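Appendix B. Chain record.
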Amino acid sequence: MVTEPAADRGQIILLRGRDLWVFLPSVSQPVRLSLSQRLIGQVANGDIARANFAGDYIPRIVRNETIGGENYYVLELTAVDRGVTYHRVLYWVKAANFYPFKAEFYSLSERRLKTARYENFRQLGGRVRPTRLVLEDALREGEESTLEYSGIKLRDLPDKIFTKDYLKRL
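Structure tokens predicted for this chain:
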């Protein structure tokens, strides 16, 4: 559920497998969307709802890099099929703790679409996570969107709420 900015408050996103639904308070029924479609700013629906690098991509370490005195593994992630948001991702992971550093997202035509930076690692929801994700648009210089995460609470939820018909009750 989107809580900020105020203009988008109340939007609810549901992802089941690769089926993505959004409930907009101004519309009475959930709407099915593509994972690559933009919902807010430079952020694609798949950026918010699904970043399943382990399940959606085949990884391969392509090189090591040193950035700011720190060592990083650079992985090339290739999509398992055309149903994922991006065809290919270059993904930098800090060698010391395996935290993500940045990712570059590419289209099927190998055009870089955006770059993500993972920042402000903190204990959240029972483990250390990046609490800030900055997405820079590679096609429009200077345009970026920032996602900030806080207040993650793990809780048991009944299966019935993970249906598109239940979205309007939330």
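Further analysis of this model is presented in Appendix C.
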